[in-house]
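step 3/5: co-fold with glutamine
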Amino acid sequence: MSGLGKGIVASSVAKLLQLTGLKVTCTKIDPYVNYDAGTMNPTAHGEVFVTDDGGECDMDMGNYERFLNTPMTKWHNITTGRIYSDVIKAEREGKYLGQCVQIIPHVTDVIKNTLKNLAKGHDVLVVECGGTVGDIESLPFLESFRQMELEVGDTETLFIHVTLAPILDVVGEQKTKPTQHSVQELRRIGIHPYILAVRCQKPLNRDARHKISMFASIREQCVISCHDCSSIYDVPEILKDQGIIDVISDKFDLKSRNIKWAEWKNVANSFFNSSGNVNIGIVGKYVNLPDSYVSVYQALLHSSAKSGKKLSVDWIDSERFENGNQNEVKLLNKYDGILVPGGFGTRGSEGIINSIKYARKKNIPFLGICFGFQLSLIEFARNQCGMTDASSQEFNPKDNNSLVKFMPEQEHTVNLGGSMRLGKHDITIVPSTFADRIYQNNKIQRRHRHRYEFNQDYRKTIEESGMVLSGHSDKGRRIEILEIPSNKFFFAVQYHSEFSSIPGKPEEAFEAFITSCI
Ligand code: GLN
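step 4/5: write tokens
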């Protein structure tokens, strides 16, 4: 079922294989009919992760990058929508002339070819299939895997089934029935799992492991306990300690089983070596599901781990601070730092502006990202430059003179899917600014996902009041970074720094923010 942690299991297995010296990549299959994740609500489906090449992807792609330290592309996130769109395009081009196009073999062939193409140049492709066994949506994918095993042989394919062993009563017995039934369901489809990764609260006890092994007919050493742990970066070790690499290596007849462990172990350990807390308040629109900002959380975590502090985050709904509740904003005083992440639409935006004002005036370290950057400009213009009606065209579409306005190339956009300014772009850093100090580079590349930007007609007004625009792109046409040098730390970026942070090597803006908070 969803939320079980398939992404972390897939990333961890991939990481272990990578640490044995193999060239590994991952792909995520999302069986929904959307072409990509870009038009989905983050509070229902989690964050939209953006790749260098501008893919709007499932959040598991972020886990792959963070574990493997290898950039993914939009092609690594496969959806039913994309597969069908490829099939229909080929049909229109006459590639299936004379044939009746069917799920088997045409759709399944496209799935298999897509996977084979992704695997090219790699030793291992870890394929994560979302959804629950038995869902109608995932059937064509599971059928493709079944065929693939038949075609390439079972020494080239290995199935790991992620299941659940819940504890339902006070006695604490681990229930094995859901796992047993799930394995039966998968077998009915023609797939025989080789390894079971059993999600459970506490380490799987001997009885439960034995029972699962016997009833599911899977060797005991292939029943792996994936119990809850305090850091996702600890999961590779949990799997390794149960011998998963030996099991996989035996099956694939792999020579090298030595895991180069030291460096990763150091990184994983850094999440435990903490002395004291750093408390961050995240004020956003989608806080009822913290997964909406999973990369932001991870980037904060990477930075606090590097600084030896334990991260504590409160997710604060920005709507709390508007409609006459402005005074509530004072509760932000207890945080070491305030962060405003990305967002879309009017709801909650005035509450965010109130929080930014509070952070700026109280000199609390502040980091703004994308929407957070745009609303920082609006707050500053309203309260520091006397532009009391400053706003964004996102909230007043008819106002062409807004402080934050539609990017010119966005004005005539008809389709909403995949049409924002997306992916990696070059950013020039202005010398002798705070940005220059933290990036120590006059050019960086970061990922984007937006339709609106700062209207440079107001540049002089903003700069004269003490805000510094310290990064730009597209030959100066676009402002990417702002800072207020008279504050301890007030920094906001139009791009999404969070997508460029990996454990052990946090993104610079996040690292500087956490350092300042500490
Ligand atoms: N809604 C804003 C825009 O489209 C900000 C987007 C974001 O935060 N990712 O420009």
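step 5/5: annotate
DSSP finds 17 helices and 19 strands in the chain.
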